[in-house]
């Protein structure tokens, strides 16, 4: 919703002593000299605190000067001096939204609606309720304010609010009403197709997107092409066309980068992902960039973008830290990540940091759950390091039955057998590890 503050009202005749000062303050406001305008309005109010125009002008000047707390006080004062006037409550709600206080904004907008149920007051109330996490109430507010004279923008806002409140079926008739009045409303086609797809009507959703593409011209088509791409098996051409129409559509750039990344083309994914990130540095875009850089073994950029991704990037950040030799940091990063991959890395780190028993405790349940040979090889190494050689032999033979070309498993089997005094078997295991490329086995065998 576009935030709008009321301009100062026309001055009343008969204020001979104050008229010039009010006009001067308004001239300063119109000239963009907001600090001077605020000072002028303050001076006027010090002489007559019941001048409506001065209260309104002061609040607007403070908002435009970026002095939001002062503006909040100014509009709050306005509501106390003029409790029956709509403008004070409406503007107070807008300031509260800018201050990140949606609950207080909703209270102010509710009073504005009670005084004058305008379209913008209802939109303000709904927006505040939505920001406060009260999606159902946000939708109900717009439903209460629905009237024949409401604009298409209001009806579209109602459909969006119903969708956000998980009342998709109710949103559909509202969207069709918008489109029946103006078929060029790209946002309405987009939301309609999204709802139909989520209701399991993918083919109908695609047909509605195609109808929208026939009715919508210019850059607005880009969002419909993005929706078509998200509904299609082969979306690349639609994504590229969407970006050609609207290079600022970051979602299309992100989707194209993700597609290339999924196909294993990490280098090709970088350009669209970087484009998306420049436009809107969303956490999911940063995460995709980190994944692309990890595949390209650019660990510095992996770490950077994984950090930008926030909590969702902790595992990729840990992988980058590990690759950069920062093992303690990597271990700290994976402590709270519960995925099997993260815990496998945690086990490997504990092993490398000499904490073999802890490593075995982490790796054993992972191996028992999925029987992953690499996890099993690390578990075997932890058991060897913990001097539990008999357990290590049994486990590593099981691992090698699944993955007979896993050099680390042969190497650790050789170490376990040597510790058990079975040198001939140990040498055969180490020789096999050396054949498979184990530098450690080659060093032990003197090769």
Automatic annotation (TrEMBL):
Pfam families tied to this protein: TPR_1, TPR_19, TPR_4, TPR_8
InterPro entries with a match to the protein in the record: CellSynth/LPSAsmb/PSIAsmb, TPR-4, TPR-like_helical_dom_sf, TPR_rpt
TPR repeats: 86-119, 250-283
The entry's keywords: Repeat, TPR repeat
KW Repeat (keyword) present: yes
Name of the protein this chain belongs to: Tetratricopeptide repeat protein
């Amino acid at each position: 919703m576009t935030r709008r503050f009321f301009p100062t009202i026309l001055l009343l005749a008969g204020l001979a002593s104050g008229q010039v000062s009010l006009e001067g303050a308004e001239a300063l406001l119109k000239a963009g000299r907001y600090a001077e305008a605020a000072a002028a309005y303050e001076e006027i109010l010090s002489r007559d605190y019941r001048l409506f125009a001065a209260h309104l002008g002061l609040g607007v000047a403070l908002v435009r000067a970026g002095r939001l707390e002062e503006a909040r006080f100014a509009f709050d004062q306005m509501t106390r001096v003029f409790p029956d006037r709509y403008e004070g409550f409406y503007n107070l709600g807008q300031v509260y939204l800018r201050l990140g206080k949606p609950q207080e904004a909703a209270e102010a907008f509710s009073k504005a609606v009670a005084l004058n149920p305008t379209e913008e007051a209802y939109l303000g109330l709904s927006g505040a309720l939505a920001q406060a996490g009260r999606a159902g109430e946000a939708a109900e507010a717009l439903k209460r304010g629905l009237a024949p004279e409401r604009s298409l923008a209001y009806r579209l806002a109602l459909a969006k609010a119903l969708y956000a409140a998980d009342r998709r079926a109710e949103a559909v008739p509202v969207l069709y009403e918008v489109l029946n009045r103006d078929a060029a409303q790209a946002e309405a086609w987009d939301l309609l197709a999204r709802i139909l797809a989520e209701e399991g009507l993918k083919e109908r959703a695609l047909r509605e997107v195609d109808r929208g593409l026939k009715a919508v011209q210019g850059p607005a088509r880009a969002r419909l092409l993005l929706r078509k791409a998200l509904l299609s098996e082969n979306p690349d051409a639609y994504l590229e066309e969407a970006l050609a129409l609207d290079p600022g559509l970051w979602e299309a750039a992100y989707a194209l980068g993700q597609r290339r990344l999924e196909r294993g083309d990490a280098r090709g994914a970088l350009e669209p992902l970087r484009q998306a990130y420049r436009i809107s540095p969303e956490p999911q875009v940063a995460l995709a960039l980190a994944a692309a850089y990890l595949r390209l073994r650019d660990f510095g950029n992996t770490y950077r973008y994984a950090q930008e991704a926030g909590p969702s990037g902790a595992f990729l950040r840990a992988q980058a830290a590990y690759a950069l030799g920062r093992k303690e940091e990597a271990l700290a990063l994976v402590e709270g990540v519960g995925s099997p991959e993260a815990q496998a890395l945690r086990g490997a780190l504990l092993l490398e940091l000499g904490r073999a028993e802890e490593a075995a405790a982490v790796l054993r349940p992972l191996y028992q759950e999925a029987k992953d040979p690499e996890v099993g090889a690390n578990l075997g190494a932890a058991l060897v390091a913990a001097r539990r050689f008999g357990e290590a032999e049994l486990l590593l033979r099981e691992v090698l039955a699944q993955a007979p070309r896993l050099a680390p498993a042969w190497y650790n089997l050789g170490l376990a057998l040597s510790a058990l005094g079975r040198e001939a078997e140990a040498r055969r295991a180490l020789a096999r590890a050396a054949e498979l490329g184990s530098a450690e086995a080659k060093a032990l065998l003197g090769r």
